[in-house]
Amino acid sequence: MATRLPGPLTLRDRPFRVRAEDGDDLAVVSAYLQDAVVPLAETAFEPAEERFALVASRFRWEKALRAKVAAEGGEPLERVHCGVRFEGVTAVRVRGVDPKAERGRMLNLLQIAYRDGCVDLICADDVTIRLDVRRLACHVEDLGEPWPTVFRPTHED
Structure pTM? Predict the structure, then answer.
């Protein structure tokens, strides 16, 4: 059984480190990674190892949801570098961006979805990275120390 993610009140300030092995696990991981900024240059597919990995700037939703915002006299909002790795990846397809011509492009990750043997990394501006996978095996880990940010991601209803 996969590790269940701790809630915002139990995670505290520990680095986020989990694995997802089914669709329910991945839905929770997706919530923690919502609004992560992913430099396209920080994504890599290693076909021989059947691995896809990326490094993102993750907004720390777990802290933002429990803390007063700095403007209200509380703790500052934060981002942190986060490594994401998928194992058992047999193919990668990209829609909405040319990975070779646009390596400097920044993607805004909105959701990670799993269905029918595929993982979709759904980004803003109609960009999707689709991973064909033998099984769902995702590992996520914060890297380094968080830094303060004044920007809290928002979405139109």
Answer: 0.84
